[in-house]
């Protein structure tokens, strides 16, 4: 009887009963968990480990994380608000004075004038500009400014030697510069006929603005050493010859491909040219650009605009967020240039005077400017830097155009055969005057 109520003898430890004990313990844990969850749900309590007294650092870390995030969001909102408030905007009324969509049969010569010359426009450019329908024409509602090869007209040999070419309708003669109306090729003298024909048109006689807005929708050309530009010059040289009276570059670019090391066709630039003497240009102080990293501005149309009044000037592409240039006229340009009192030109010492002393803070950009559109080719002014890319001429060489002409087979091979790809194609031009 005593044995019937006694505890059973202890079993020896085996693999089976050890595993069974662990399994029983695990089942007990799992069965206990739902009861605690159900209890929490019934009482409406939420488990908050960061509030447990046993770990106060977790609670502090949690609160600090959210506090820093909220401070960052608040600071961003404040910064955006102040940035938006500081954006310069034109004030007053704008009166539309030019709206040309090029839907006619030919260029409207009541608005546009051709500049016909072989002179290179001070940059020693390699093209001649013509009024020929080969270089400027309307097609399907677009204006084409198309560079072509002079050799297609007079032959390659004539360009290089023994030929006299006089350009038809030369406009440079108006300024008593008849030397830019013709050329004689002579291989001994390293003189060649301009190897490219292109075009340059302007609104000098018809439309100009002193403060306002210009908008141009255009597609750039592709091809080595092409130089498309949409820009403005003063109607009168009130403060003196270039660059004393200023120049506004709304857009200029290079036709070289995306791999070109000095900003190819995937870059567009906006600039102000100005300076107190003809050989001092402070454009480097007032220039900028926008870029498309994986595409070219020759791939599609873009809208280029300039907004300008007595307080600021801005040039941008497609949207104000893509500003190439923005300059506030809060400092007079002579002060902005930080010029020395005396400058040296060779052996000559020149006392530097302020050419804009009687102008406003925006001088020389406080006078009427007119619009120019063109496609230049090459040149020696430095727009195409030496030793960059496969450049076939040296800017300082006296026979730079001859070097360029001799390499025609190479650079002409990069020019597309179809007009649409090789031309500056303009969809429309609009101009508003502040009124």
From TrEMBL:
One Pfam family of this chain: Glyco_hydro_16
GO biological process terms held by the UniProt record: carbohydrate metabolic process
InterPro entries, sorted: Beta-glucanase-like (IPR000757), ConA-like_dom_sf (IPR013320), Glycosyl_Hydrlase_16 (IPR050546)
Assigned protein family: Belongs to the glycosyl hydrolase 16 family.
Biological source species: Neolentinus lepideus HHB14362 ss-1
Annotated GH16 domain residues: 100-435
The protein's name in its UniProt record: Glycoside hydrolase family 16 protein
Domain of life where this protein originates: Eukaryota
Lineage: Eukaryota, Fungi, Dikarya, Basidiomycota, Agaricomycotina
PROSITE patterns: GH16_2 (PS51762)
GO molecular function annotations of the record: hydrolase activity, hydrolyzing O-glycosyl compounds
Membrane-traversing stretches: 60-82
Keywords, ordered alphabetically: Hydrolase, Membrane, Transmembrane, Transmembrane helix
């Amino acid at each position: 009887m005593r044995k019937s109520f006694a505890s059973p003898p202890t079993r020896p430890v085996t693999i089976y009963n050890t595993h069974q004990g662990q399994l029983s313990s695990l089942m007990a844990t799992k069965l206990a968990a739902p009861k605690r969850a159900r209890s929490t749900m019934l009482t409406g309590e939420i488990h908050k480990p960061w509030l447990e007294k046993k770990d106060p650092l977790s609670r502090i870390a949690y609160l600090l994380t959210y506090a820093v995030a909220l401070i960052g969001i608040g600071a961003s909102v404040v910064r955006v608000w102040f940035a938006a408030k500081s954006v310069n905007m034109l004030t007053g009324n704008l009166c539309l004075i030019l709206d040309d969509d090029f839907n006619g049969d030919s260029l409207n010569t009541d608005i546009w004038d051709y500049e016909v010359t072989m002179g290179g426009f001070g940059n020693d450019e390699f093209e001649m500009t013509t009024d020929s329908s080969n270089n400027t024409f309307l097609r399907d509602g677009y204006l084409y400014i198309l560079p072509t090869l002079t050799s297609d007209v007079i032959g390659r040999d004539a360009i290089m030697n023994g030929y006299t070419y006089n350009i038809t309708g030369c406009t440079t003669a108006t300024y008593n510069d008849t030397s830019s109306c013709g050329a004689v090729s002579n291989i001994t003298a390293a003189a060649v006929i301009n190897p490219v024909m292109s075009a340059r048109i302007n609104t000098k006689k018809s439309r100009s603005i002193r403060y306002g807005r210009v908008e141009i929708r255009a597609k750039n050309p592709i091809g080595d050493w092409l130089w498309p530009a949409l820009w403005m010059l003063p109607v009168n040289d009130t403060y003196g010859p270039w660059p004393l009276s200023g120049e506004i570059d709304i857009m200029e670019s290079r036709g070289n491909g995306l791999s070109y090391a000095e900003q190819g066709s995937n870059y567009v630039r906006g600039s102000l040219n100005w300076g107190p003497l003809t050989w001092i240009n402070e454009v480097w102080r007032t220039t900028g650009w926008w870029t498309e990293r994986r595409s070219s501005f020759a791939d599609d149309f873009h809208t280029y605009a300039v907004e300008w009044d007595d307080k600021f000037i801005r040039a941008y592409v497609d949207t104000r967020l893509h500003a190439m240039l923005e300059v506030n006229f809060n400092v007079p340009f002579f002060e902005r240039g930080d010029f020395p009192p005396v400058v040296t030109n060779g052996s000559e010492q020149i006392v530097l005077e302020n050419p804009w002393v009687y102008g406003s803070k925006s001088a020389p950009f406080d006078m009427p400017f007119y619009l120019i559109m063109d496609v230049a080719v090459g040149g020696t002014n430095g727009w195409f830097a030496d030793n960059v890319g496969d450049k076939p001429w040296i800017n300082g060489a006296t026979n730079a155009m001859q070097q360029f002409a001799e390499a025609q087979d190479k650079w002409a091979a990069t020019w597309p055969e179809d007009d649409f790809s090789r031309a500056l194609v303009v969809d429309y031009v609009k101009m508003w005057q502040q009124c």
